[in-house]
Amino acid sequence: xxxxxxxxxxxxxxxxxxxxxxxxxxxxxxxxxxxxxxxxxxxxxxxxxxxxxxxxxxxxxxxxxxxxxxxxxxxxxxxxxxxxxxxxxxxxxxxxxxxxxxxxxxxxxxxxxxxxxxxxxxxxxxxxxxxxxxxxxxxxxxxxxxxxxxxxxxxxxxxxxxxxxxxxxxxxxxxxxxxxxxxxxxxxxxxxxxxxxxxxxxxxxxxxxxxxxxxxxxxxxxxxxxxxxxxxxxxxxxxxxxxxxxxxxxxxxxxxxxxxxxxxxxxxxxxxxxxxxxxxxxxxxxxxxxxxxxxxxxxxxxxxxxxxxxxxxxxxxxxxxxxxxxxxxxxxxxxxxxxxxxxxxxxxxxxxxxxxxxxxxxxxxxxxxxxxxxxxxxxxxxxxxxxxxxxxxxxxxxxxxxxxxxxxxxxxxxxxxxxxxxxxxxxxxxxxxxxxxxxxxxxxxxxxxxxxxxxxxxxxxxxxxxxxxxxxxxxxxxxxxxxxxxxxxxxxxxxxxxxxxxxxxxxxxxxxxxxxxxxxxxxxxxxxxxxxxxxxxxxxxxxxxxxxxxxxxxxxxxxxxxxxxxxxxxxxxxxxxxxxxxxxxxxxxxxxxxxxxxxxxxxxxxxxxxxxxxxxxxxxxxxxxxxxxxxxxxxxxxxxxxxxxxxxxxxxxxxx
Length: 656
Prior knowledge:
This protein is mainly beta and about 650 residues long. It is built from four helices and 40 strands.
């Protein structure tokens, strides 16, 4: 069930034994919890506790206050005895009033009438410690404590200096909101860089600088019987070119022929991608050059064209309308000038594929902006009203295979003119270097519960956890992304989670493919005992990070974060807060790792509200994104995007 209302009574509510009649600075011997004062030893030297009492874990200060990350507070101070006797230390905790002075003494134990803790004996000069049991101190409350030393017969005459501490969580958050409008799967197109744009265009680095110059800018057909040549040159988009120019009078709406509507108004000079769409606007322009016997002589005529391409994969039958896996490709050709000397221009688009006999591919279908059929080629006649109309060529490909297949593509455009010359062909490159394959669609029949479909696996989608509805889970995931060495899932660290898919080659002990349950049993076995928490937290489950459905899980064999058991993970739990603007917090579980998580653990394990644990990732669109084994994705945690580090508590913010 979700969090109950804040303030619900709990069997572990901390008993605060308050007595305003007590003098916090009365001699330690007036509260002899460690043992009786023996007058016969009065001539002996008295022990002394140190001047710097501290509280933890992790024994770090925020200003003048010790910041404690677990309600099982550990109090410590040194103790010395001039006679060299062993010494114990008494710890007394008080609440703090508005003036920062001790107000009420807190009952820390029932083992003595004073409600104070006494450490075991330690050698003179060593540090003595005592741990407060869970439920005795309230998270979100500021306390102060002091100490006194006892050598088995004598107390020191004064208390140590006061030290202030505050039990505060790594993250704080309220109960879940009643509703939310967050879209957990929406994706914004991301720019990418082509690794094989063809021999006529430069190959760029991700920052836009050139890594390889064009090797063949101009390509010519053979001379015709009259010795005329036709050549074509490709050039990158000019810096001045912004949006694809539209024909004057064209309505502002996206043309009906457009395969990817969001692509129409993207600036040229870059390429854009989602998990299903690729919008190529870096191809630039082509120049047709019609020459006499010597192609180096001034042209007899020329024409300029702008080119763009699209690739659209259909993850499901609902989107494609086909029972087969399908992806479509499209080229847009826009003439900007055609010399009348050329008479007319015809262009054909050739799409190469590695699909072989597993694919059914249609010839390009050519239309105008309104999707009106314009024939078997892109065709323009000079000195007519339509000589500068755009032409769209679309190719449909259906994959009829089984299992999975990533399909490499290649593109060429062949042009010819009515004035003569043999056709000239421009190489538009491929779907990418074989090590990258950024534009190579992948089709499969493996995604459970889905018809065959295709996707562009190079694109790494982002899943957004709705922290309006699942604030506790979101807080825990954010802390894990921040503190785990590999920052798995965090886009700001460019660190992916990799899905554990049905096509994994990793086997379990039975020889079957490794599953989410196999990983979970290692990190969150049935023997795991949840940390006690206030009843307002509700039922809790063991929630692991990275998730058991990823290669980054601590339970995944051979993974970068593999552990032999969940005890090696960083341990946390959620609990109720008593003050501040939020009601719950994520704390360190120090039952085993007494100092709390170090930040070097390879995984996390936390007691999280059961509903939030179960639902935070329930809408991961495995079918919609066609996630197969080792596919990478990011996790977005918008309610905590403002957080900076884990050295102070970060409070959730509602997502608008």
